[in-house]
Amino acid sequence: MTDRQRIDKWLWHARVVRTRTAAAALVTAGNVRVNGERAAAASRAVKSGDVVTIALDRAVRILKVTGFAERRGDADAARLLSGDRQRARDGGAGRR
Predict the structure, then answer these.
(1) pLDDT tier, 89 (very low <50, low <70, confident <90, very high otherwise)
(2) In which region does residue 36 sit, left (phi positive, over 0), alpha (psi from -120 to 50) or beta (all else)?
(3) Radius of gyration, alpha carbons of the chain
(4) How many of the other CB atoms lie within 10 Å of CB of 27?
(5) Residue 71 has what DSSP assignment?
(6) Distances, alpha carbon 31 to alpha carbons 7, 25, 52, in Å
(7) What is the pTM of this model?
(8) CA 20 to 30 Å from 29, out of 11, 39, 41, 69?
(9) Is 54 exposed, middle or buried (0-12, 13-18, 19+ CB in 10 A)?
């Protein structure tokens, strides 16, 4: 097993997006940061311990890279690839 993987491939294997093409589009649109720096290309490598921030439609996900996979697996296998650094927030968190 490798100690690095392309960011688009990792996003797809971790089931953040449905297709690898969608993962590459997220990166090229500037919606992905690795350790606080914008990922400029889908080919950028991530390693174990990196923190990946993804701006999705209505949410921001912060994930820590904890592993890699050779193939895209089921949801249980995907959970082993990342640790969620931010709990889901409810819509009324800032209301009084």
Answers:
(1) very low
(2) left
(3) 13
(4) 24
(5) S
(6) 12, 9, 10
(7) 0.82
(8) 69
(9) buried
Distance CA 7, CA 13 (A): 10
Higher per-residue confidence, 95 vs 29: 29
28-74, pLDDT tens digit by residue? 999 999 999 999 999 999 999 999 999 998 899 999 999 888 888 78
Please report where in the chains the tokens 């996979």 appear, as a residue. Answer: 69
Going 43 to 41 to 83 to 17, the CA torsion angle's sign is negative
Instruction: Extract the tokens encoding 90.
Output: 């409810």
Residue 49: CB atoms within 10 Å: 9
47 bridge partner residues: 4
Residue 39 in tokens: 């990922």
